[in-house]
Known about the structure:
Blueprint: H1 3-15, H2 26-45, E1 52-56, E2 67-70, H3 81-91, H4 93-102, H5 110-125, H6 159-186, H7 188-201, E3 203-205, H8 206-215, H9 227-230, E4 249-252
Antiparallel strand pairs: 1-2, 1-3, 2-4
Helix pairs in contact: 2-3, 2-4, 2-7, 3-5, 3-6, 4-6, 5-6, 6-7
Amino acid sequence: VSxxxxxxxxxxxxxxxxxxxxxxxxxxxxRVAYHECGHALVACxxxxxxxxxxxxxxxxxxxxxGYTLQRPEDDxxxxxxxxxxNRIAVLLGGITAEEIVFGETSTGxxxxxxxxxxxxxxMVTEFGMSPKLGRVHYSESRPSMLAVPSLPAELPHSEDTIxxxxxxxxxxxxxxxxxxxxxxxxxxxxxDHMAKELMEVEVMDAxxxxxxxxxxxxxPQIKPGTHAALGTATGGDEGSASRPPSxxxxxxxxPGEPAEGA
Length: 262
């Protein structure tokens, strides 16, 4: 059994079978390419992220139009807050790239949004990573087996606490989205280059990606959280053009996205 066969087996589990017969038009293909390259470029720019192993815009599975596969360099059980924030930024890189390039988003971002929101919620309710809510574990409501069905469900927390949890989740998502926006805006030339070549080859491996990044090495990378200092320089309307979760694809496009792709 060859390494290529092993990799194909892994991708089948993660993203489903290839759908070589599925035809997508050029406009949709371009959107998927930018979406996937958005994930990959944010992952390659921010520190404490898993290396990008492969980017694909070959349709797979049910509704998946593409995916970005990341692989960890080592086995770890502990993940720091900054790493989780950067993972969320990577998950939002696809939808952010669509906003920057096309001025609006698509349904292909559903899986990425769901995973980003779930991760932010765990940071707040399970990992005690919210400065506002403190080092508290907020359990989810689990109805008792002996509960009377006709009685209203008992909320585990007050309405004020639930609202604060939602606000903290939104804050984490908004800050990660801003970070992704800054990365892709500052490295727009790299994003365009990546998307153009991905449309031609359809599958881009780590070596191909590295060659592109090496051509743009003079472009400075930014650190997470710089949006606070940059102010309006890189902010503004995101629509204008100008684990611990387990490691896996950043995102897979379409309503049936298996991981995190276009």
